[in-house]
Write a structure and sequence with these properties.
The complex is a heterodimer of chains A (about 240) and B (about 525).
Chain A (H helix, E strand, L loop, with lengths): L1 H28 L15 H14 L1 H6 L1 H21 L9 H30 L1 H6 L2 H22 L5 H13 L9 H16 L7 H7 L1 H4 L12 H8 L1
Helix pairs in contact in A: 1-9, 4-5, 5-7, 7-9
Chain B lengths: L34 H4 L12 H15 L1 H9 L11 H6 L6 H16 L1 H5 L1 H4 L6 H10 L8 H5 L6 H14 L5 H12 L8 H19 L14 E4 L10 H15 L3 E2 L17 H18 L3 E4 L3 H15 L13 E2 H11 L14 E3 L3 H6 L8 H13 L30 H7 L1 H14 L3 E4 L2 H10 L10 E3 H8 L22
Parallel strand pairs in B: 1-2, 1-3, 3-4, 5-6, 6-7
The chains are: A mainly alpha (about 240), B mainly alpha (about 525).
The complex binds iron/sulfur cluster (2 copies).
């Protein structure tokens, strides 16, 4: 059974990394022929980097828009981020200091994550406009993440699983010397769903993760008068 | 269809987000382009036989040429942040007028033909086949988007439905289903030089008329020159400025500013149009062809600078794209930005102290300013981000005594489109235009009631035409819309007197009697 999981995670990791890499390569290869930043936009590169940081860390545009959506999704994303960082401890030994320091926050961040997800789900069900634009997959993603979060939090706070064994499994995983995974149903559910998430991410709307960095309305410098912007296919038009 | 009966929405105290009602605008459509409108633009005259294949190919082509399109198709998480941001949704309640609802009309087809999930699990991810009905839906709802970019401000990934509407319209054009209004106009520009199809002599007549009018009123011979070689400044302005009200009063104002600034300037028959409808239909090639006329005119006339008159979408193409499409402009004076907006020019002269104003000339009005969508969210004026908000306001405040802004969440980057932009300014789309104007009308009515504002000033030819038409539907007067340079024109004191022999018609009709 452990080797099935080992295989599953090898495949899932490969799919995730290659799938995302494929998309990133695709996005970076496609030209952006016109200057289309949503203005007012920064007039320097540094300004754009700051705009991007505000967008990715604080969800600036969402904040301007709908406070409830902003609160829920910020809680979810920041919770998830801390939880993920905390999980690094299961893959490395010795555990780096920053990861140790984050441990208490990472544990309770799970609640923020779950509350955020629940809020988003409720919104999706009860706000008529959001319900209208949702397809089944939009609900399923939220449910999937909720079950991952709940199963994880249950193991952290209620019915502890044998984390030492889990850690042995995953640290060994890298060196193919892996130990055995405890056959704890909660753990297996948690891990299976995580693998599903990793497998599907590159084919789904979760592509907003790389997408946000490539969005021309956010990542372009507002300097069209100062600097001529011309992509290859447009240059060809000039030659003909 | 065109001219259908509809009810003008009632204005409420606040801009309310309505409960959605499916299908309220499904019946709306606009005249389809005829072969003679399609072909000169390089599009098939009629719906091609293998339209499905052509449409999918075109979509693939656009996905590979426009990063925005590819990223926007993928990145939407259906967060709903944009759903209450579009004036067409707010005015019509139709969920397909929510920005994401509109995008999904295209996205469902993208998913079906270009993604793994959509190919194998279409139901799960909301993917759908391309059918005749889908094409009809595209035609209807992508002509209910004014490409105003309000949605892109609030989307966490900056997804801009304007880009998606442009792509959709380009796909429609490629299968031979173009919109008559836009394509006919672009054809006129290619052939004659402006959207209205005004030939050179007609423009010349109009300009002479303006010179006479100004002379009659102020006894100063302000010139409105056309095709003058060796002038310093080429003024490119929307052709509506040549005859429509209140546009023409703005044109009179530009002339007075140039006169007082003591610069030599000219209009051009070849570049007698600032607007560039090539953008509305998403066609880089047509947009480029239209833009090149400006370059050619500048070269032929040997000017040193290019200044654009009051027009919103035009300023977007001018500011953001002109350098790309028709540059480099290294033959112009490097001390000035290319192109410059007339408001930048005027404010600069005000700051230099070359202009004198008598603000009391505008005391019969109390003004508010409508940030035109494309100026606000797709361009800049001056050196600093946000100059597009401050500079026109500073110009207005320099020439009027009474000024008040509308509610903060309806101006600047959050401004509401007039409802007629992006190729919708046609009578067959009157219902969309009137309903889409609702949020702006609400904010305007509120500032009228609360601050005693009487007039709405704008710097866009489309906004001006749209408000002229739409005000009466909401119980307002069509003359409540004014050009910014009309206000300048009213207040400017003409100090540079001219010798009598420069007066229009001098020495011409002496022997008439
Ligand atoms: S660009 Fe403007 S008109 Fe089009 S969907 Fe967005 S908000 Fe609506
Ligand atoms: S705001 Fe952006 S991500 Fe959210 S639903 Fe609208 S288009 Fe999609």
């Amino acid at each position: 059974m452990s080797s099935v999981y080992a295989l599953l995670f090898i495949v899932a990791t490969l799919v995730l990394v290659l799938g995302l890499a494929r998309k990133i390569v695709q996005y970076s290869r496609i030209p952006a022929p016109l200057k289309i930043p949503t203005t007012p936009a920064p007039v320097t590169r540094t300004g754009v980097v700051l705009r991007m940081i505000r967008e990715v860390v604080l969800f600036e545009s969402l904040f301007k828009s709908t406070k409830w959506t902003w609160i829920f999704s910020w809680m979810f994303h920041m919770g998830l981020f801390l939880v993920l960082v905390r999980h690094v401890r299961y893959f490395i030994d010795p555990v780096w200091l920053p990861i140790q320091l984050i441990q208490p926050f990472g544990k309770y961040a799970a609640f923020a994550m779950i509350a955020g997800l629940a809020g988003l789900l409720i919104r999706r069900i009860f706000v008529d406009r959001v319900r209208y634009i949702s397809s089944p997959s939009d609900f399923l993603w939220l449910l999937l993440l909720l079950v991952i979060g709940l199963s994880g939090a249950t193991m952290t706070f209620l019915v502890h699983t044998d984390v030492v064994a889990v850690k042995e499994f995953f640290t060994g995983f890298w060196t193919f010397s892996g130990g055995d995974l405890p056959m704890d149903p909660l753990l297996l559910v948690h891990l299976t769903l995580v693998a599903v998430l990793m497998l599907l991410l590159p084919f789904s709307k979760l592509l907003h993760i790389p997408g946000v960095f490539f969005s021309p309305t956010r990542n372009q410098v507002d300097n069209p008068r100062e600097k001529r912007h011309l992509v290859e296919w447009a240059r060809k038009l000039e030659e003909s | 269809m065109a001219g259908a009966e509809f009810e003008t929405p009632e204005l409420t105290e606040f801009i309310e987000v309505p409960k959605l009602v499916e299908g309220t605008m499904e019946h709306v459509t606009c005249f389809v382009a005829k072969p003679e409108h399609q072909e000169p633009l390089g599009f098939p005259g009629e719906k091609v036989e293998n339209w499905k294949e052509v449409a999918i190919d075109k979509m693939g082509d656009l996905l590979s040429r426009y990063r925005s399109f590819q990223v926007f198709m993928d990145a939407c998480v259906k967060c709903g942040s944009c759903t209450d941001k579009c004036h067409y949704y707010l005015g019509t309640k139709d969920p397909k007028n929510m920005p994401v609802g509109r995008q999904d009309l295209l996205r469902k087809v993208y998913r079906r033909y270009f993604t793994f999930a959509g190919k194998y699990f279409p139901k799960l991810v909301g993917a759908a086949d391309l059918t005749d009905e889908v094409v009809d839906e595209w035609y209807s709802y992508f002509h209910q988007c004014s490409q105003c970019r309000r949605c892109s401000v609030f989307c966490p990934y900056g997804i801009d439905t304007a880009e998606i509407s442009m792509a959709a319209r380009e796909i429609l054009d490629s299968i031979g289903v173009g919109q008559k209004y836009c394509n006919e106009i672009i054809g006129k520009v290619h052939k004659i030089g402006n959207n209205l199809g005004l030939p050179g002599p007609a423009i010349e007549d109009t300009l002479e008329g303006l010179e006479e009018d100004v002379y009659e009123e102020d006894e100063v011979a302000v010139k409105y020159p056309l095709d003058v070689k060796g002038a310093d400044i080429l003024l490119v302005t929307p052709s509506a400025d040549f005859f429509a009200e209140p546009h023409v009063d703005g044109l009179i104002g530009y002339g007075k500013v140039f006169h007082e600034a003591g610069v030599s300037w000219t209009l051009s028959t070849k570049a007698s149009e600032a607007g560039n409808f090539g953008m509305f239909i998403g066609s880089y090639e047509n947009m480029r062809r239209v833009s090149l006329r400006i370059r050619e005119a500048a070269l032929e006339l040997g000017v040193k600078r290019i200044v654009f008159g009051e027009c919103g979408h035009a300023w977007r193409v001018a500011y953001s794209f002109l350098n790309t499409l028709a540059g480099p402009f290294d033959f112009l004076d490097p001390d000035y930005p290319v192109p410059q907006h007339i408001c930048e020019f005027t404010l600069n002269e005000i700051e230099k102290g070359t202009l004198e104003f008598d603000k009391s000339e505008n005391d019969d009005m109390s003004i508010t300013f409508h940030d035109s969508c494309n100026v606000a969210r797709a361009t800049r004026m001056g050196d600093k981000p946000g100059g597009q908000f401050d500079i026109p306001r500073e110009v207005i405040k320099a020439v009027v005594n009474n000024y008040h802004d509308m509610e903060w969440d309806t101006i600047h980057e959050r401004t509401f489109c007039c409802g007629g932009g992006g190729g919708l300014l046609t009578d067959d789309l009157m219902e969309v235009r009137v309903k889409g104007a609702k949020p702006r009308m609400t904010a305007f009515k509120n500032v009228m009631e609360e601050k005693g504002v009487t007039h709405l000033a704008a710097i866009c030819a489309i906004c001006k035409s749209q408000f002229t038409k739409v005000f009466p539907y909401y119980g307002m007067d069509m003359f409540q819309i004014v050009s910014v340079h009309q206000l300048v024109s009213n207040a400017i004191v003409l100090n540079r007197k001219t010798p009598p022999e420069e007066a229009p018609g001098y020495g011409e009709d002496d022997d008439d009697e």
